[in-house]
Structure formats: structure tokens, C-alpha cells
Design brief:
It is a single chain. With 345 residues, the chain is of the alpha+beta class. It contains 3 helices and 23 strands. It has a 7-stranded mixed sheet with strand order 4-7-2-1-10-13-12, with no helix packed on it.
């Protein structure tokens, strides 16, 4: 009876705990800390430190970052000791998903994930101020975030006597709840935000920082097009992108721009003058080399020969040879042959 009781208890525990772990997604986020540096050119450097407690073994976590209207470049994903963690970038719902973890290894207990990336086009300009409106944690987490904090370092162009606007919001998407507090230190030019309560599943913290206009250098934008497209773009002899592309990280002044594409004659490089706050568009026409058509003709001919080779071989050697008609047996001796001759044969 006692043995049967133990078996029933073990069975109930086996059934109960997987359901509990599944409902809690197998981990909690004890702290989500974000450090944002606003550079004078409006580019952000973001460092997220996510403190995760795994209830049982998992490969890792997903981090979803919305990228609508902005450009995000991931620089690194490490642990608390700056040791690289394996990750993969995946396009996801008009955003970027980071799949962090090794497919052949498991982690459990406390794990710290440090994600560093840059953001372009995140600063919105208004007549009264420049605004950073940033969802610091994201709202895609299926688990509770016990504590969230964000630190924003303002550019040196913001003077200590300038007014800085700070606000923060918590909750699901479009929520106006403000279970958070902010503080601005004019001496260090730093704004800090902290949640005042835990963030439930699929909730996050969004911060707003407004700084006076003309404190940021408006970016120079260079748009490069070519006919045909997919030409490699080099600026000052450094390869950047493939056409069509738009670059907003170049400094003002003169830059040498060139494009090249296999099978096409490269046009002469151009010297382009860029100015802050202005968009410059450059278009290139590439002329095809005569041998490119010949190369395509040879490739198509080889592919055609390889494809039709079995048919040609069968036509030449695979068919049965022509016969000599039906063979009819003759039961009588041929004419003009004597019995002696037949016997000899």
C-alpha cells in the first residue's frame, strides 16, 4: 500500500511540474538593464544586460527588437564576463529576432545575456525638441520582468542649463500606465528610469527623452542606385553595400564613390560632397561586357548538351539493330542437291 502511494505521488509530481514550467516558459527575468548612449550624430549605442533565471535546462532565449523605420546593427552577444555567446539573427514580424544559445548545449540556473547594438534613425525631430522614444525591454516576453531600469547618456552638445524632458510608460502595447520613475542629472547629463513594480507577461517599459533642437548633428544621407542593381558600392575604397542602398553614417565633406559588378564595365569614380541634414542621390549606369553574353551562351550550351546527352546516346547506340525479317523453316532439301551432297552437309 505504501509503495503504491509513493508511485501515485511521483506520477502526480511528474504531471504537475511540466505543466507549471510550460506555463512559466521555464525561466524568469529578474533584472533587465539597458544603457543607451546618444551620440552627437543621432546614432544610439545600446547595451542590454538581461539577468535570467532558468527553472530547468534550456538552450537559451529569444530577444525580439522592433525595427520599423530604424536600422539596427548587432555588434555582440556575450555573458557577464564579455565571453561571446552563440546567436543567430532572424527576421521576425517587421523586426529582428536574436536566437541566443548553442543548439548542442543546455544552460540552467542564473544566466546573464549582454547584447550590444547600434540604432540609426531612432531620434525624431520636432520644432521644439529632438525626441528619443524607445521601448527599452520590448513587449514580446512571455515571462515576468521583476525589475527594469534604463540609463540614457546624453550627447555633450546638451548643456547643463538646457531643459530635458523625461517620461516613461509601462504595460502592454499602447498602455499609458506609468509604474516607473525618472531622474535627470544635469551634471553627468544622464537620465535614469526605473520600474516601480514588476512587468507582467507581454509587458514592457518605454522611455521618452526630449532634448533641445539643434543639439544633434543632422545626419548626411547618401542614396546610391545603379542600372542594373546589385552592384557593389565602395566609398573611399572601402566596400559598404550593394545597390540600391542608403547610407547615413558618413561624415560631411568629400567622398569618392565607385560601383562595380561582375560582367559590367565600371564607371569612373565620382567625388560626392555631403552636407549635414541633406540627402544626396547618385545613380550609375553600367555597360555590359561583350563577353558576358558569350559566357551565358556557353553556359546554356553546356547545360543543354548535358541535359540532352542521354537522348543523343540512346539514339546512336541504345536502339536495337534492324533484323532480317522472319526466319521460316524449310522441311524439304534445296533444289539441285543430291542425297549424297545433303549427307555430306
Amino acid at each position: 500500500m505504501i509503495k503504491l502511494k509513493h508511485i501515485l505521488i511521483t506520477l502526480l509530481l511528474t504531471l504537475f511540474f511540466p505543466l507549471t514550467a510550460s506555463a512559466g516558459e521555464a525561466f524568469d527575468i529578474s533584472n533587465f538593464d539597458t544603457n543607451i548612449t546618444i551620440h552627437e550624430n543621432g546614432i544610439l549605442t545600446v547595451v542590454e544586460t538581461i539577468d535570467v533565471d532558468f527553472l530547468y535546462e534550456r538552450h537559451g532565449i529569444f530577444r525580439d527588437i522592433q525595427t520599423v523605420g530604424i536600422t539596427v546593427d548587432v555588434l555582440s552577444v556575450t555573458d557577464e564576463n564579455d565571453k561571446n555567446r552563440k546567436y543567430e539573427e532572424i527576421g521576425f514580424n517587421e523586426g529582428l529576432r536574436l536566437k541566443i544559445g548553442h543548439p548542442d548545449k543546455y544552460v540552467d540556473g542564473r544566466q546573464i545575456y549582454k547584447i550590444t547594438y547600434t540604432v540609426r534613425k531612432a531620434i525624431r525631430s520636432f520644432p521644439e525638441y529632438n525626441e528619443l522614444y524607445w521601448n527599452a525591454t520590448g513587449n514580446a516576453w512571455p515571462v515576468k520582468i521583476h525589475q527594469a531600469s534604463t540609463t540614457v547618456k546624453l550627447p555633450s552638445s546638451v548643456k547643463t542649463d538646457m531643459e530635458v524632458i523625461t517620461k516613461c510608460y509601462t504595460g502592454a502595447v499602447s498602455s499609458t500606465d506609468q509604474d516607473c520613475q525618472s531622474q535627470y542629472d544635469s551634471n553627468s547629463k544622464t537620465v535614469t528610469f526605473n520600474s516601480t513594480s514588476s512587468l507582467p507577461e507581454y509587458s514592457g517599459m518605454t522611455i521618452l527623452v526630449g532634448i533641445p533642437p539643434d543639439t544633434l548633428i543632422q545626419p548626411t544621407i547618401l542614396e546610391i542606385k545603379s542600372m542594373p542593381s546589385k552592384a557593389n558600392v565602395k566609398i573611399n575604397e572601402k566596400e559598404y553595400c550593394a545597390t540600391p542602398c542608403s547610407l547615413d553614417m558618413l561624415s560631411k565633406g568629400k567622398h569618392e564613390v565607385s560601383v562595380d559588378k561582375f560582367g559590367y564595365k565600371s564607371p569612373e569614380p565620382r567625388t560626392v560632397l555631403l552636407a549635414n541634414g541633406k540627402t544626396t542621390i547618385e545613380s550609375f549606369d553600367l555597360k555590359k561586357h561583350y563577353w558576358l553574353d558569350l559566357l551565358w551562351f556557353l553556359i546554356i550550351s553546356v547545360v543543354a548538351l548535358i541535359s540532352f546527352e542521354p537522348i543523343i546516346t540512346f539514339w546512336r547506340k541504345g536502339r536495337d539493330p534492324k533484323g532480317k525479317g522472319s526466319i521460316m523453316p524449310i522441311y524439304e532439301p534445296p533444289d539441285n542437291l543430291s542425297p549424297a551432297e545433303m549427307g555430306t552437309l
